[in-house]
Amino acid sequence: MTVIIGLEIHCQLITRTKLFCGCSTDYRNDPPNTHTCPTCLGLPGSLPSLNRKAVEYALRVGKALNCSIPDEAEFARKNYFYPDLPKGFQITMYDRPLAVGGYLEIEADDGTEKRIRITRVHMEEDPGRLVHVGSGDRPRYSLVDYNRSGIPLIEIVTDPDLRSPKEARRFINTLRTTLEYLGVFDGEREGGLRVDANISMEGGNRVEVKNISSYKGVEKALTFEITRQRNVLRRGLTVERETRHFLEARGVTTSARSKEEEHDYRYFPEPDLRPLRVKGWFDGIALPELPAARRARFGQAYGVSSNHARTLCGDLKIADFYEEVACCGDPVLAATWVADILLGELNYRDMLIARVPSGHFVELLQLLRKKEITDRGGVDVLRVMLDQVAKGETPEPPSAIVARLNLGKAMGNEFGPVIREVVDANPAAVKDLRGGKGEALNYLVGQAMKKTRGRADPKELARMIREAIGQQEVAP
Questions:
Q1: SS3 call for 166
Q2: Which of 156, 158, 210, 295 is the most exposed place for a label (fewest CB within 10 A)?
Q3: Rounded CA gap, 335 and 337, in Å?
Q4: Pick the CATH number of 412-468 from 1.10.10.410, 3.40.250.10, 1.10.3210.10, 3.10.20.740
């Protein structure tokens, strides 16, 4: 059964003020209902005033997503009644969006490039936020915080071109990175991106899963919902057209209500806002370097492999950090250490790359490049440095850590006794090595590395082990 997925992605724009009033958008650490005014509270007589910067940001997104701009865009009122919507309607765009007909390329499940079509990009205001008090699925009561009410959003709607949860997650990650490169979105801001996913089996009814609030959650929600729909169809039943909610803590979707039709919202043009004619403005927008262009430049300018370039450019802050440390004298070495080692250590500590002192990291790379420490020693130095940062301490310079822990690369002649000890303690491995089993050499080198605490060059240890057993070459 072919899976058909389309996404509706809501992204908060990082403007200083709300979409239709002058209230600050920097509300996250402030008490509830302290960033409000008559306009974002929907009080009688208040009128919206459109945020010019939000329009510019939305146009920037439309251009990056290869969209075209209609001659006119128009705001509309979407009528529905919910406590977090103070006016009783949401100001959004309906049949006359800001940008249409674009695309974004991602890596498909088979490893090829796949073009995901963008139906539309439009602007709208965010509702408020409900705070449920009490545990379980039935809270004792709910409170409303209107600080978020009126925050500028763009909604990006895709065609139903996605065919798996993994493709959907890759699309969202690629889109998030593009938005960060454009300078219109902060992926680290809580609630900055929310996804509604439409899923169906080919020929079946469409189900919408609402308000998925994390990148991993998209894949989990879709995986569960696809399994659920397939099981319904296998039992000979019909998948009901409905709206469902994703419960991230349990990893399941639950039925919320029957799916609304568009006419249920009674859309009509917003009478307090004039139509937008911004095509000329759109044509004059200059885009910054986007992820695909930066990947190509990393390959051409720094000699970075395509896999490393994809990893480095998949996050704006990581790409910026790499360019800071590529001055170490060996940009390929820098790419390898950032992509393969540093990011793994940061993920283990749940630490952001912004906390890594780039000057210290450059010094570490220079020690490696000059072969003053081994790769194993370099990892030890990095771990000490990151642990100090995680504790809030001022990190030591790498050279100081090397001296304090005696991690400097030692001369080979220091390890003669270690080599003899390893050879004497592992007669079976020595016999295998003499018999032409190359993996036995790796084992013996590993044992020697443990005893030397990573201070020795593995190639030098391998040479010394061969020499110790009277074998100069190892059969492949």
A1: helix
A2: 210
A3: 6
A4: 1.10.10.410
CB 15 within 8 A of CB 51: yes
User: According to the model, what pLDDT value does residue 422 have?
Assistant: 78
Domain segments of the chain as ranges = 3-283, 291-405, 412-468
Q: How many CB atoms are closer than 10 A to CB 263? A: 7
Nearest residue to 98 (alpha-carbon basis) of 273, 291, 260: 273
Residue type, 338: V
Chain position carrying tokens 């030890």: 380
What whole-number distance in Å separates Cα of residue 96 and Cα of residue 322?
Answer: 42
Number of H helices, E strands in the chain: 16, 13
> In the predicted model, what is the mean pLDDT of the chain?
89
Residue bearing tokens 């004298």:
329
Residue 123 main-chain phi, psi, to 5 deg = -105, 150
Q: What stretch of H or E contains 222? A: helix 215-234
**pLDDT digit string, tens, across residues 15-30:** 999 999 999 999 988 9
Closest CA to 279 of 120, 67, 100, 72: 72
Tokens encoding 413: 């002649």
Q: Confirm if 252 and 245 have CB atoms less than 8 A apart.
A: no
Other Cβ atoms less than 10 A from the Cβ of 213: the count is 14
Q: Please state, as a whole number, how many other Cβ atoms lie within 10 Å of the Cβ of residue 190.
A: 8
Copy the structure tokens of residue 307: 């896999």
Q: Which two tokens stand for residue 473?
A: 């070459």
Distance CA 382, CA 345 (A): 9
With H, G, I as helix, E, B as strand and everything else as coil, classify residue 32: coil
d(CA 149, CA 129): 8
